[in-house]
Write a structure and sequence with these properties.
Largest sheet: 7 strands, mixed
Strand order of the largest sheet: 2-3-4-1-5-6-7
Strand content: 35-45%
Structural class: alpha+beta
Length: 512
């Protein structure tokens, strides 16, 4: 059958779990808030999975597929659980955004929209709890809310998405909703030839059989009796059996929601994480990749700022460095303001140093957030995203190998004054360098410019202090010479250069 993973996202108490339960015919062991803590608190605390099978629309029929299965991923809505929401959203093909008709789009609803934009391109809005609106006023209120929600979607990738009024609790209009959802169904792009990668969201043991990891196949495929690696434990195990919603499977492919039973290990060691083809997933200590800023995040991105970095189900703290790509070199950027144009020709690269290594596959999606922001403030906590590109997988190589390859530099300038005229072709310049920590020799041969326009090259150092000789490309002009002879007059000398940091063997390199 064709399987589509449908994320159900929205604000807390908007009715997501009720909708998932009303639509589903098959439930996993973790569906519909079966967790005792969820029942005690009355909110969804973890991802819930359930499914519904319908006839495959004729427009999608090809090969042996006869059924269309919607696997619903019921995500928490509470703002404090956004890590779980991000992890759940990264496995979806389509999205259902649940909006309470009495409250409209709220802060967390908007954050769910942002997360959805990063992970999928098709969405249905469920305008829920319409039965709470007085019947005589319902039509006008529904139309007004549809216009408001539609306007909010205009500047997103979901512009024009269908909006269906429903009541998940009473079942009102659910048939129409399912018809719309089926109408949006599509055959997603799958790559079964890529290395196997599996996102584990629950793990439990079965006595006498093994340990079951439930989750979603992110890429590739796996067959019975093949080996898989648990990278967080650095162990390889054999696949003993597989089930998809209680139906045994010989093979699981990208997009499938399955339970994989592997040879015994302690399930407490893997609450969430990855299974993969042995050797495929890396420990990443640092990474540099193209920065994609989330437009709703307010405030600048600053050098050395710390963000929560989420990759799959894992969130760690990371320190950022901003760089502007210049061919094979990267210019250091102190700060990136929120009004930095998205279509700027300058390609901004972000370097992240993780406080502890993350486990990630090549090109994995990462999202940077400020999750310590006050949850009651009306601000988007999601700041940026990107796909892991240039990764450091060995902590010892970070300073010795990884950073030097990035060719990071800062634009610098030094200003001194002409202290003495040796001839109309040679000057003694002071003030360009400090006496302590003097590195004048590194600047020999660099070009310098007088504020009167003449140019020259720093020839060599002069004396034991901070002075240097400046040999002019052309002779001093008479006006400059006259100015230098006047008491109290000064002619300044400027040197612009690039200071390359993190060089192999230590130290910095000075070039123009």
């Amino acid at each position: 059958m064709l399987n589509l993973n449908v994320g159900i996202l929205g604000h807390v108490d908007s009715g997501k779990t009720t909708l998932a339960k009303a639509l589903s015919a098959i439930a996993s062991t973790a569906a519909f808030d079966k967790n005792p803590q969820s029942q005690q608190r009355g909110i969804t605390l973890d991802l819930g999975f359930s499914a519904l099978q319908v006839d495959l629309p004729s427009r999608l029929q090809s090969g042996s597929d006869e059924k269309l299965q919607f696997t619903f991923v019921d995500c928490p809505g509470h703002s404090s659980l956004i890590r779980t929401i991000i992890g759940g959203a990264q496995i979806i093909d389509m999205m259902v955004l649940v909006v309470d008709i009495g409250k409209g789009i709220q802060t967390q609803t908007a954050e769910c929209l942002v997360i959805g934009e990063l992970t999928c391109r098709r969405m249905v809005v469920a305008l829920n709890k319409v039965d709470t609106v007085e019947e005589g006023k319902r039509g006008k209120i529904v139309e007004k809310m549809k216009r408001g929600v539609g306007a909010a979607l205009e500047k997103t990738v979901f512009a024009g998405s269908p909006i269906v009024e429903i009541s998940a609790g009473s079942g009102l209009n659910l048939d129409s909703f399912l018809e719309v959802l089926t109408g949006l169904a599509f055959v997603p792009e799958r790559n079964f030839e890529m290395p196997f990668l599996f996102a584990v969201d629950h793990c439990f043991g079965i006595r006498g059989q093994g340990t079951v990891c439930t989750g979603t196949v992110l890429q590739g495929q796996i067959r019975l009796n093949e080996d898989v690696e648990i990278p967080s434990l650095k162990v390889v195990k054999k696949v003993k059996s597989m089930q998809m919603f209680k139906q045994s499977q010989q093979i699981a492919r990208q997009g499938d929601r399955v339970g994989i039973c592997i040879t015994q290990f302690d399930p407490k060691l893997l609450e969430r994480g990855l299974l993969c083809r042995p050797g495929y997933v890396m420990n990443v200590y640092a990474a540099a990749f193209r920065l994609n800023r989330i437009k709703y995040f307010k405030g600048p991105l600053k050098d050395k700022a710390k963000f929560h970095i989420t990759c799959g189900h894992e969130t760690v703290m990371g320190k950022i460095t901003l760089l502007k790509a210049q061919s094979s070199q990267h210019e250091f950027v102190e700060q990136l303001d929120e009004n930095h144009p998205e279509d700027s020709e300058a390609l901004i690269v972000i370097l992240i140093e993780f406080e502890r290594p993350i486990q990630a596959a090549p090109n994995a999606l990462v999202i940077g957030s400020r999750l310590d922001t006050d949850i009651h403030s009306n601000t988007c906590r999601l700041a940026f995203y990107g796909h892991l590109a240039h990764c450091c997988t060995n902590e010892k190589e970070f300073h010795a190998e990884f950073l030097p390859k990035l060719n990071i530099y800062k634009e610098k300038r030094k200003v001194g004054v002409v202290q003495r005229v040796v001839s109309d072709e040679e000057l003694i310049v002071s003030g360009l360098f400090k006496k302590e920590g003097n590195n004048r020799q590194a600047f020999v041969g660099l070009a310098a410019t007088l504020d009167t326009g003449e140019r020259g090259l720093i020839g060599d150092t002069f004396g034991a202090g901070s002075k240097v000789r400046l040999r002019l490309t052309n002779r001093l002009r008479e006006e400059t010479m006259s100015r230098l002879k006047q008491k109290g007059e000064q002619v300044t000398v400027e040197v612009k250069y690039k200071k390359f940091m993190f060089q192999k063997g230590g130290g910095n390199k000075i070039v123009q």
